[in-house]
Design a protein that fits this description.
Shape: elongated
Distance between the termini: 32 Å
Number of helices: 11
Helix content: 10-25%
Radius of gyration: 31 Å
Strand content: 25-35%
Oligomer: single chain
């Protein structure tokens, strides 16, 4: 058995530790190239060869025996990671768990590698979400296995991995048809919360699996006949000539193949094309056939089934015998990449902000800012006592700017050191009776700040100021036209014009009054602060999502349409129809992306031409979709909702993957922060780093 590197430590742990239900290890060379382990051969039939459902007594015996074997592995510090029909063998004495190449130690899985050999339908939701297999995920897989063998169908139905993960995390399994005691046991094993699942040892001792010390006549007659035929093939090897082995053994599917003379248990797929065998069958050839077929599930042929699709095998090193190494393959469509790390906040106060640098990402937790290491997710520094902390902004020199009740705070992202706290800036405005209402945005060394009287924002004078926080001086200040109020936001800070957005009538709170309000837009010269123009549009509704580019073009999504306006002239550039009521939109690299209740579409920002449209996995209201973003490479559009994050290919619109993290309780859409080569996905209780390359 050729071992993947990540399985060597587990195999070494099992050497000299006999476990009931696990093949005996006869020898190993973990430091050889390639590393290998030899196991005792036992005539066996793969569970995936057997027609289901099984008789209920067989399900009880099978479940109890597999639970007992898993308990032994877990107590030895090893996770199996391959509980599925093709990872369980039926022998005359008891079931075996032979896929030792899928075993992993409990601790320290290599970052960025898939560690489970089970198909997606048998993976616990936390594993489908990017976590490594654990003893609890083995128990979940056993629950799926018992449901499948008892009912003839999976408990969460069929479908792509993201849909299976969603059902497993948020819907009850369909166990209708199982006896009540067995259904209750399986239901507990399938809990979406790992801590609520019983251990394998607890499962093995449950009355519903009583009699699980398998032995005697527990198998149907057709399986007994197949086992006898396979045993006869092994006995016949004693008389077979020992001819040189071929340089490459025939590699079959994950299902054990039928050796000559065996009884077919179910229809098998057409075997792959292989080289012609020598006319005289040797012991090596027969063994190779049986081990690459009947034992193909565990001898390296499919160690990443469910996570990768196998590519064409490459030739083994000269003189090699036995099964070929599995190819790495390509990612299965729909499955998210392996999470790089997860940072948990038991207080549930974490807020992601779009700030990163010097190998760290910034998160806010109440009045504390923390820097998370982008390689491990571990907090490496913190800044405390940031009174009334507001969102942070990326600043030049790998720094962050925060606005607190103490004033403007600039800190270094490398170590969290405060470079300065500028409370004098607010005090210097006292003569004008103006205060800093909010920081609108930051570009390099300049912060765009809204000044006004906090208790009379609708009727008092508002000013837009440019503040150089390196020189710690105001560059310019300009009055804001009437009708913006405290709702004023910076729509675009790029190009030569700053675009400010506000709502005329924003002080009115009722829906009826809000319908009469209009959005207003004002342009200011970025270098001097000179007011250039003020615009409003009857067809841009108060609640319309908007974006603007550096050329002064406005994009607005309304009910059934997407429009582009030239803010300098006030003319409409183009209009494109979209379905339903449009939700959030984002502008990136000359493309406008917009979401409505059922689809996401991409439009050329210059012409409005629809480049592609794609239906969302589930229909969402506009309020249910969070702030979309594009990966640093520009290759992925990331759409967050309260339940998942969906990644679309920005060029074709193809759904690339969908992530549905488990155990993050929140009704708000996921927060997203793009960092080099990854996206941080967060809720107040946790942050997960997902690679985007």
């Amino acid at each position: 058995m050729v071992l993947p590197a990540a399985a060597r430590e587990a195999a070494a742990t099992l050497s000299g530790t006999p476990i009931e239900g696990v093949p005996d290890l006869l020898g190993s060379a973990p430091d050889a190239e390639p590393p290998w382990v030899a196991v005792a051969f036992t005539p066996a039939v793969g569970l995936d060869e057997v027609d289901v459902p099984l008789p209920v007594d067989g399900v009880r015996l099978l479940g109890g025996a597999v639970a007992e074997a898993l308990a032994g592995l877990h107590e030895a510090g090893v996770v199996y990671g391959a509980v599925a029909p093709d990872g369980v063998w039926l022998t005359a004495r008891r079931p075996l768990l032979p896929a030792l190449d899928a075993c992993r130690p409990h601790e320290g899985p290599p970052l960025g590698t898939r560690l489970s050999a089970a198909p997606a339908g048998y993976l616990a939701p936390e594993v489908l979400s990017g976590g490594p297999p654990t003893p609890a995920s083995d128990v979940f897989a056993l629950g799926v296995l018992m449901a499948y063998t008892g009912l003839g169908r999976p408990p969460f139905g069929d479908g792509p991995p993201p849909e299976l993960a969603y059902r497993a995390a948020r819907t009850a399994p369909d166990l209708a048809g199982l006896p009540d005691d067995l259904a209750g046991l399986v239901s507990r094993a399938l809990s979406p919360v790992p801590a609520e699942r019983p251990t394998a040892r607890e499962l093995a001792r449950m009355p519903a699996l009583a009699g699980s010390s398998v032995g005697g006549d527990w198998l149907p007659g057709r399986i007994v006949a197949a086992l006898a035929a396979r045993a006869q093939d092994v006995y016949a090897l004693e008389g077979a000539p020992d001819e040189p082995a071929p340089t490459r053994a025939a590699t079959g599917s994950m299902a054990p193949a039928q050796a000559t003379g065996t009884l077919a248990l179910r229809s098998a797929p057409t075997p792959p094309q292989t080289r012609p065998e020598p006319p005289s069958t040797s012991r090596r050839v027969v063994l190779a056939r049986m081990l690459s077929g009947a034992a193909g599930a565990v001898l390296g042929g499919g160690a990443v089934l469910g996570w990768t699709e196998a590519r064409e095998d490459t030739a083994d090193p000269e003189g090699a015998t036995g099964p070929t190494r599995p190819g790495r393959g390509r990612a299965v469509a729909g499955l998210p990449p392996v999470a790089l790390w997860r940072y948990d906040d038991p207080t549930g106060r974490t807020k992601l902000v779009p700030v990163s640098g010097a190998g760290h990402a910034l998160v806010l937790q109440g009045q504390t800012a923390r820097g998370l290491d982008l390689r491990s997710g571990k907090p490496v520094w913190e800044v405390q006592e940031l009174k009334g902390t507001a969102p942070a902004w990326q600043a030049s020199g790998q720094r962050a700017l925060l606005y607190t009740f103490d004033g403007l705070v600039v800190c270094a992202l490398r170590d969290g050191r405060k470079e300065w706290v500028d409370s004098a800036y607010e005090r210097g405005l006292a003569e004008d009776s103006l205060e800093v209402v909010k920081v609108l945005g930051v570009h390099r060394d300049t912060a765009w700040i809204l000044l006004g009287k906090r208790f009379d924002l609708e009727h008092g004078d508002l000013h837009l100021a440019a503040f150089d926080f390196v020189r710690r001086e105001e560059r310019w200040r300009a009055p804001v036209p009437d009708g913006f109020g405290g709702s004023a936001t910076l729509l675009s800070g790029s190009g030569g014009t700053l675009v400010l957005e506000g709502k005329d009538g924003s002080a009115l709170s009722s829906d009826e009054d809000l319908e009469t309000a209009t959005k207003r837009f004002a342009g200011f010269d970025r270098a001097t602060g000179k007011h250039r123009w003020t615009r409003s549009f009857d067809d841009v509704e108060p609640r319309s999502p908007t974006a603007a580019d550096g050329s002064g073009r406005l994009f607005a999504a309304g009910l059934g349409d997407l429009r582009a306006k030239d803010l300098t002239t006030g003319r409409q550039a183009w209009e494109e129809r979209v379905l339903g009521g449009a939700g959030p939109l984002v502008l990136d690299r000359g493309t406008v992306y917009v979401v409505d209740g059922s689809e996401v579409s991409a439009h050329d920002a210059r012409t409005g031409h629809r480049r592609w449209q794609q239906y969302l996995p589930r229909s969402m209201s506009g309020d249910s979709v969070g702030t979309m973003t594009v990966s640093a490479s520009g290759r992925l559009l990331l759409v967050p909702t309260p339940e998942e994050v969906t990644a679309f290919d920005t060029r074709s619109g193809e759904l690339v993957w969908q992530l549905s993290p488990v155990g993050l309780e929140s009704h708000d859409p996921f927060q997203l922060t793009v960092v080099p080569d990854a996206v941080l996905v967060g809720q107040p209780s946790a942050v997960i780093a997902v690679p985007t390359t």
